[in-house]
Write a structure and sequence with these properties.
Largest sheet: none
Structural class: mainly alpha
Number of domains: 1
Strand content: under 5%
Shape: globular
Distance between the termini: 28 Å
Helix content: over 70%
Number of helices: 14
Length: 302
């Protein structure tokens, strides 16, 4: 499937099916996973560590916002207080995740961010009154075991700060997923543009005084990272979450932390330890059991 063939603005007359929603979320997870290729590339790694997280958090978000402007259905655009939790959660997640990614391994950063799944289940049950189905619980337990295995097996003082940033980004990411579900009646591209624009502008005052100079290739990679790895997948995710429960949405995007270390290993030779492999197998196994045993428990929410 070509991504260009996927409509970016939801249509009130052509609602998505649950199957289409899953395709959108899987596509989003695949695109998100490309962060392991770009951020761990030698071209980006030469940016000083103390500047790298701020540069990426700021400019990739701004590039994403600008790149998605043509896809906004401007007739449906509106500014309401309901958007505030979304933009705040997204800004916090963006900065914490990039900080984690530059300070720990790609696999650890991605897997620890997905502690968000547990928060999504809890907050979805409390705030959205979504029933927690048995199959989702099985998948959540397997995912929790996999993430815990990675966390406790790869304890390293050198990566301690990065791991803490990743855990914090997981809480913020849960807020993003819940906000996308709550804002399902808004234009997906508009919500995505607003989230990224706010996120980038919040960090911009901290970046400009540093007078960081990037090469043309570095600017190109940051732009690519923003538009195709960050902006587009959030539009796809917003469309998928609109027709699926937050529980199933949170489980499907668990494909990302499996793929991130794989790409980093294939492209740049970053070591993938047994803890990541075992933890990833638990996550994938839980998803396989969930869809094999309870295929009809993923109903479109009301």
């Amino acid at each position: 499937m070509q991504l260009s063939s996927l409509p970016l603005a939801p249509s009130p007359t052509l609602p998505l099916s649950s199957k289409q929603g899953r395709v959108y979320l899987i596509a989003a997870a695949l695109l998100w996973s490309l962060s392991g290729i770009v951020i761990k590339s030698p071209v980006i790694q030469v940016i000083p560590l103390e500047d790298r997280s701020l540069v990426l958090a700021c400019y990739r978000a701004l590039f994403a916002a600008v790149g998605l402007l043509p896809f906004v259905a401007w007739r449906r655009v509106r500014l309401t207080p309901r958007l505030m939790p979304s933009v705040v959660s997204f800004a916090v997640m963006n900065l914490l995740f990039v900080s984690a990614f530059t300070r720990t391994t790609a696999g650890a950063a991605s897997c620890l961010q997905y502690t968000s799944t547990a928060w999504v289940f809890l907050f979805g049950w409390l705030a959205l009154k979504e029933r927690i189905h048995r199959g989702n619980i099985v998948a959540l337990v397997c995912a929790g075991c996999g993430i815990a295995w990675i966390l406790f097996s790869e304890q390293n003082d050198q990566h301690a700060d990065g791991n803490l940033f990743a855990l914090g980004s997981g809480v913020a990411y849960a807020g993003v997923i819940l906000s996308l579900r709550w804002l399902r009646d808004e234009d997906a591209a508009w919500v995505t543009v607003l989230n990224h624009a706010f996120s980038g502008l919040v960090v911009l005052p901290f970046v400009l005084p540093r007078h960081i100079e990037l090469t043309a290739l570095q600017w190109s990679l940051v732009a690519l990272l923003g538009v195709f790895q960050m902006g587009l997948p959030y539009v796809l995710a917003a469309r998928g979450v609109a027709v699926l429960s937050v529980q199933e949405s949170a489980l499907l995007v668990l494909l990302e932390p499996i793929l991130v270390p794989l790409w980093a290993w294939l492209c740049w030779g970053e070591h993938v330890g047994w803890p990541t492999l075992i933890g990833g197998s638990l996550i994938i196994g839980g998803l396989a059991v969930r869809y094999a045993v309870w295929p009809d428990r993923a109903q479109t929410p009301p």
